[in-house]
Structures are given as C-alpha cells and as structure tokens.
Amino acid sequence: MALGRRNENYYGEIKTMSYTDKLFDIQGQVAVVTGAGGYLCSAMAIGLANAGAKIAVLDLRLEKAQSVADEIINSGGEAIALAIDVANKDQHLESLEAVLDRFDSVDILVNGAGTNCPTPFFDLSLDEWQGVMDSQITGTFLGCQVFGEYMVKKQSGSIINISSASANPPLSKAFPYSVAKAGIKNLTQNLAREWATDGVRVNTLRPGFLPTEWNQKNFITKEREKAILGHTPMNRYGAPDELVGATIWLASNASSFVTGAEIAVDGGFSCMTI
After folding, report:
1. pLDDT grade, residue 222 (50/70/90)?
2. Residue 44 maps to which CATH number?
3. Does some domain include residue 217?
4. Which of the following is catalytic: 10, 11, 19, 177?
5. Which of 124, 155, 196, 219 suits a disulfide with 215, CB 3.0-4.6 Å?
6. Is residue 19 annotated as part of the catalytic site, yes or no?
C-alpha cells in the first residue's frame, strides 16, 4: 500500500506524506488573516505558514503586519503584509485584489481583527460602543461578504471567525465586546447555512483566556485572575500557539463535514459551572 505522494514543504524538505499529513494538508493554499499583527492571530498566521500555506497578513498597523510577514518569509514561507481598516468595505475589496494579484487565490479566511473596551455600561460612550462593533462584528461581516463572495464563486473555501469565551454567557467588564462576539457566532451560523452547498464552510473558533498585554493592564486583576483560573479546569491560561491545531483542522479537509460549529479552545472554561 502506498504511503502517499512525495511532497516538498516550504522549508524545502522532501518527505513522504503520511495519512495524517494528507488529511490536514493545506500546503500551497492561500490564507488571509485579519488582525494578524496581534497577539493571537499572529500565532495563527505563523502556524498556517508552518503548515505550508501562503499568508496574507492583514492588520490596521502595517508595521505589525510587516513584522509577522517578515518572520514567515525569513523562515522560508510566502507572505505579504497589507494595511486594512476592517470596517471599510473598499479596503477589503482592495485587499482581495492585492492577494489575488500576488497569490492567484484565496482558500482560507481568518477574521480575527477587533478591539475591546472595559468602560462600565452607564459610562460607555457611543463612540466606544461603535468602535468595538466596527472592529469586531462589522469587520467580520465585511470580511465574509467580500472574501466569502469570491469563495462562493469558486465553490470552495474555509472561513474561521474568532469568537470568545465572553460570547455566551457574557463576562463582566467587556460589555460591547461580549455583545459583538455573540453576534459573530450568530453570523457564522447564518452563513454556514447559506453556503453549505456552495463548497464554503464557516466556523467559529472560541478562545478562552490567553491574556494579552492589554488584558493584563485593563481587564485582569489578581482577584479576577483567581476567578478565571478557578473556572478553568486546566487551571492555567492558554498560549497563542495552542490555537494553531484547531485552526489548521478547520482550514483543512480534515473538517470537511464541519460547518456552523463553535470550537472552544479554552482549557475547559465553557464546560464549567461550580
């Protein structure tokens, strides 16, 4: 029985593809990752590149996007960096055109851009509310609309929208963020239903607590940390690279019958009560 085709990964190593290699194979596919200059999505972009995908690194901060793209390129991968305001449809259209000009396809979309706001409800300004909504659910909506239309036309693609442990039930000190993340889950399920026969799968990845520098400064106190870890059966925070396995699974044909799902990577946080 043949073990599988011989293939050259992006490090230039020749290897024989095993059954699992073939099952999770995304080599040569093109992945667009928004928010990829950030703490979590940069790890996801680099992880997809390590699996052989070509990466379009999109972020509001071009210098952050370029830094991630450079890391991928310096490791032997292929990447481009693009600046984008995800709340601007024209910039999504321009990004799609730029990616197609460079790589000729888009196979995977990770919608990971977004901001948070810890302002209490009665003090929350409309600008703060709208800023979170624009970067989170509006950005995800536009990403799906622009890149999803391309995928539907070519009858193939995988979209991974990033939700949060705060989507349901909501967490305190994250009011607009929790609302937006719950909306992203609903949007994902709607699109999964709409595009199920068009070869496009749409799923949600739900990270648990993987504290960023911003979270440590604005969100997590010693008392709150005790509550978070006490509600997490693994009794620890996650690391960004622990999102990579689920990301590759959702991006690959290993999850070919999975759409509309919410995949929790949270150390058990979502299954804990008392």
Report:
1. confident
2. 3.40.50.720
3. yes
4. 177
5. 219
6. no
